[in-house]
Amino acid sequence: MAPDSGNGNKGWNEWSRHVLSELKRLNEELKNLRDDAPELERRLLETVSSIRIDISELKTNARIWGAVSGVIAGAMATGAIQFVLASLKK
Known about the structure:
Shape: rod-shaped
Oligomer: single chain
Strand content: under 5%
């Protein structure tokens, strides 16, 4: 909110200095963000790449465990069938 301008231009002069000061501060912060952007982008891309590798490893592990579980289930089913057939022959 603007200071009281009861003293002619004195209030506006104060307010204009404040506004200019804030504009300079915001401009400096924007410049800093622009300077930091390439580094932040590089770090973000590294993180995404790492996550992609982790997901690929997890998918591979899931396939391996799925195959092992399938082999075990198949072996157990085969054993159970052979046991039942052997019991029927007796």
